[in-house]
Amino acid sequence: MLLQPASASALVRGSGASSKQLTRVMQQQHSGKVFSHLALAAKRSFSSTTGAQSELRKPPHLLSLADLSVPQISSILERSAELKSISRASDLAFSSSPAAGKYQGGRILPQSLQGKNVAVIFSKRSTRTRVASETSIASLGGHPLFLSSADIQLGVNESLFDTSKVVSSMCDGIMARVGGHEEVELLAKHSRVPVINALSARYHPTQILADLLTMLEDPVIGGTSSASLDTLRGIKVAWIGDSNNILADMLVAFPRLGIHLSVATPQGDQYKKDEIVWQDMQDGLKEETSYEKGKVEWGNDPLAAANNADIVVTDTWVSMGDESQKTQRLKDFSGFQITESLLQKAGAKKSARFMHCLPRKPDEVDDEVFYGPRSIVFEEAENRKWTIMALFDRMIGEWKY
């Protein structure tokens, strides 16, 4: 429905539209026509100023991969591969490389975040996630607003409720790297814009999306540029390490995708499965699929876990905040270091790949494996950017109030 000319300029002015946009609206008042995108801006302004939260669309949130269906995961990965391809082609087009001539032109990264501000709230240190987030927002035409623990203290100087209300009223999306998972849950609960979990103590969804894209691209594991998850069904992933947030998102995603997961963690209560995660996994397995679900095995023997594995994955043994436990943890993980000798003794496939989300310590994996032909860790790290970019594009760029 078009707005009446008399009210259009007033509402658009309240929406934060530019002076040029206002001029264009006023020039068209004699005909009673208003551009549809300005009408939408006015509608958004009206909804927010009335305080009628029920009139606003509920924003999508990603707190774990349990929040996404199999088709949604597939769609995000397809978009990730597409954005990566577009960016690479654009780089060639403006280079002196002989391959530049293969670029057909006409394909540029969508500016889906044009005019949008995305809050990047990190209460924990980060390299890959921060770089991937800020560069992705900028590449899509948006403005990243980085807020560290020095700028904002979640739940300390201000309640999470207040922080969520204030930040979401000024920004178009929130990327949050927090401590306890309840922190990102509260941010999402009270936010009027999409919230993406960049890492919490329980889940790390953006990492596993990057892992999946890396698997799909690998010529041995996936061997396809189509990002079709069909190619991953039936493969075996061995997780040898801590019972942490990386493993948690593997558990809620891999079995639903038809990927078998074999887990080896040290003995001890702190390394047992998280019952909440386990229930999320069970709930996800109820999703109907036309193929056989993946199986999950859990034990304490790295050799058993790596047997016949297509991919072997580990992570840090001492997470941020656990530094005081380092001495004991190094004892607990004795025999868990990934080496070529361990992989051969376990009977991992000769073509088995190695993955690690970084940063890496030599205690976790030796140089021979980490820098050797099995390793796809740096491809995995780069794919953080493309999967995060796809999330921003789909969840923030395409979402409207």
UniProtKB/TrEMBL annotation:
Chain ranges of the Aspartate/ornithine carbamoyltransferase carbamoyl-P binding domain: 61-217
Recorded GO MF terms: amino acid binding; ornithine carbamoyltransferase activity
One GO term describing the cellular component: mitochondrion
Keyword Transferase annotated: yes
The EC number(s) this enzyme carries: 2.1.3.3
Stored Pfam families: OTCace, OTCace_N
GO terms for biological process, alphabetical: citrulline biosynthetic process; L-arginine biosynthetic process via ornithine
Keywords: Amino-acid biosynthesis, Arginine biosynthesis, Transferase
Pathway of action: Amino-acid biosynthesis; L-arginine biosynthesis; L-arginine from L-ornithine and carbamoyl phosphate: step 1/3
Domain Aspartate/ornithine carbamoyltransferase Asp/Orn-binding, first and last residues per copy: 234-393
Family: Belongs to the aspartate/ornithine carbamoyltransferase superfamily. OTCase family.
Record-given protein name: ornithine carbamoyltransferase
Organism, scientific name: Ceraceosorus bombacis
